[in-house]
UniProtKB/TrEMBL annotation:
Keywords: Oxidoreductase. InterPro entries: FAD-bd, FAD/NAD-bd_sf, Geranylgeranyl_reductase. This is NAD(P)/FAD-dependent oxidoreductase. It comes from Streptomyces heilongjiangensis. Gene3D superfamilies: FAD/NAD(P)-binding domain. The keyword Lipid biosynthesis does not apply. GO terms for molecular function: oxidoreductase activity. Residues 6-347 form the FAD-binding domain.
Length: 417
C-alpha cells in the first residue's frame, strides 16, 4: 500500500469521509481512507438524520442496513419553542415516511463498510501527523498506524473529513469566516424505561431537551443550556440534567425521575463556535465539520455531511475525469456548499441562542402551529425536503397568515424585523 499513488486520500472515515470515499470508488477512482479510530466505535453526535439525509442513504443503497440494525422508525415529531408547539410530521417524500436516529457505532460501521465494498482501501488506527506538499500544492499525507513506523501516501487530492479539530485544515491553513459564537453546551446519555418518541423542546429559561429512540431499545436524552449555566451544571450533572426536564416539561420530568434508567455515562460537549472554513485549495478539500460547523440544536451535522460529501465527490470526479480543471471544480464545491447551507446556518444559529424568537420567526411559527398542514410543511422545511420559499415567499406568507386568521397588524413579513 505504501508505494501506491492514489487519486484521492480521505482523512476521516465517519459520516463525511466514508460517503465521499464510497462514491469516488464507485466511479472507479483509487481511494485511500484513513482514520485514527477503528470501527465500530462511538463518537459524540446528535444521531438525528433528517429526511434529506435519509434520501441520500436510500439512493446509495444503505438505508435498509440502518433499518435492519433495528433502528426505530420515527413518524411523529413533537417540537416546541417557548410555548409554540408543532406536533406532526413532514409529508412523505418518494415514499420516505420516517426518520431514524442510529447510534454512531451502527451508522459509521455501515458507512465505512460501504466504502470498502466500493473498492476504497481503509486504514484504521492511522493518525495523520502532517500533510505533504510540493510547489505549493498538497500531494499526500504522513502518519502512522498505531505505534508503527511513519508512512507516507500520495494522491492528486487530499480530503480532510476529520472533524472540527481537523489536522488537514490546520496544516493547510484553511481560514475561518462567517463565525458566530457558540451559544451553549450539551450533555446526553442513553436511557431505558421510557417510551417518549421524538421530542425537541425549548423552554423559557434558555434550556432545551431532546429525546429520540435509538438502537438496543434505548432512548437518547440530551440537554442544551447556555454557556453561562455551564459552571453550575458541572457541580452536579445528574441533578442539573434532571432539572432541565423538570423546568421545560414537568410531566416528562416526573416520568424521567420515576421510570427512566440511565444506562451509560453522560457525554458532555462544549462545542466550538459556528463557522465556515475555506474548503478548498491546491490539491486539498474539506468536508463535514472540518469545513463547516453549526450548533447541534437542529441536528443537521450528519445530513450536511452526506449532502456535501456527495457534492464534493461529484466535483472531484469532474476534475479527475478531465471534464474541468480540478481547482475550478473544488472552488465551485465551496461556493455551492455555502449557498445551499446558508438558510440552515442562519436558522440554527438564531434558534440555538435559546432566547426569545425574533418577531418574524415568532409570528410565522405561531401561525403554523394553528394548522396541521402548515405544521407538517415547517417540519418538512426543518427536515430539508420542503424548500423555504413554500413558506417564506411573500404569497406563501400571505396564505399562512390568512389560514391562521392572524390580524393584519400582527403579521410580520421581514425576516430582519
Amino acid at each position: 500500500m505504501g508505494d501506491r499513488v492514489y487519486d484521492v486520500i480521505v482523512v476521516g472515515a465517519r459520516c463525511a469521509g466514508s460517503p465521499v470515499a464510497m462514491l469516488l470508488a464507485r466511479l472507479g477512482h483509487r481511494v485511500l481512507v484513513v482514520d485514527r479510530s477503528s470501527f465500530p466505535s462511538d463518537t459524540v453526535s446528535t444521531h438525528y438524520i433528517h429526511q434529506a439525509g435519509l434520501l441520500k442513504l436510500r439512493e446509495w443503497g444503505l438505508l435498509d442496513e440502518i433499518v435492519d440494525a433495528k433502528t426505530p422508525a420515527l413518524r411523529k415529531m413533537h417540537y416546541a419553542y417557548r410555548g409554540i408547539e408543532l406536533n406532526g410530521f413532514a409529508d412523505p417524500v418518494d415514499g420516505l415516511d420516517a426518520v431514524y436516529c442510529p447510534r454512531r457505532t451502527v451508522l459509521d460501521e455501515i458507512l465505512v463498510n460501504a466504502a470498502r465494498r466500493a473498492g476504497a482501501e481503509v486504514l484504521e488506527n492511522f493518525t495523520v501527523s502532517d500533510v505533504l506538499a510540493s510547489e505549493g500544492r498538497v500531494t499526500g499525507i504522513r502518519g502512522r498506524e498505531g505505534d508503527g513506523p511513519e508512512r507516507e501516501f500520495r494522491a492528486s487530492v487530499v480530503i480532510g473529513a476529520d472533524g472540527f479539530h481537523s489536522t488537514v485544515a490546520k496544516k493547510v491553513g484553511a481560514e475561518l469566516y462567517n463565525v458566530r459564537p457558540a451559544a451553549g453546551f450539551i450533555y446526553y446519555s442513553y436511557f431505558s424505561g421510557l417510551d417518549w418518541g421524538l421530542h425537541h423542546k425549548t423552554g423559557f429559561h434558555e434550556r432545551w431537551f431532546g429525546s429520540w429512540p435509538t438502537n438496543d431499545g434505548l432512548t437518547m436524552l440530551a440537554v442544551i443550556c447556555t454557556r453561562a449555566q455551564l459552571k453550575d451544571f458541572r457541580t452536579d450533572v445528574e441533578a442539573r440534567f434532571q432539572a432541565v426536564f423538570d423546568d421545560v416539561h414537568p410531566d416528562m420530568g416526573a416520568q424521567l425521575r420515576d421510570s427512566g434508567r440511565r444506562e451509560e455515562d453522560f457525554r458532555p460537549m462544549r462545542y466550538p463556535d459556528n463557522y465556515y472554513r475555506r474548503a478548498h485549495g491546491p490539491g486539498w478539500a474539506l468536508v463535514g465539520d472540518a469545513g463547516y460547523h453549526k450548533d447541534p440544536y437542529t441536528g443537521w451535522g450528519i445530513t450536511d455531511a452526506f449532502l456535501h460529501g456527495e457534492l464534493l465527490a461529484e466535483r472531484i470526479h469532474q476534475g479527475l475525469a478531465g471534464q474541468r480543471p480540478m481547482d475550478e471544480a473544488l472552488a465551485e464545491y465551496n461556493k455551492v456548499r455555502d449557498e445551499e447551507s446558508a438558510g440552515v446556518y442562519d436558522f440554527t444559529t438564531t434558534l440555538g441562542e435559546l432566547t426569545e424568537l425574533p418577531p418574524f420567526f415568532k409570528a410565522t411559527m405561531s401561525a403554523m402551529s394553528a394548522s396541521q398542514e402548515w405544521t407538517n410543511k415547517m417540519l418538512g422545511l426543518i427536515g430539508g425536503v420542503v424548500p423555504d420559499y413554500e413558506i417564506y415567499a411573500p404569497d406563501a406568507l400571505e396564505r399562512l397568515y390568512d389560514d391562521a386568521g392572524v390580524p393584519e397588524e400582527e403579521r410580520v413579513y421581514d425576516p430582519a424585523a
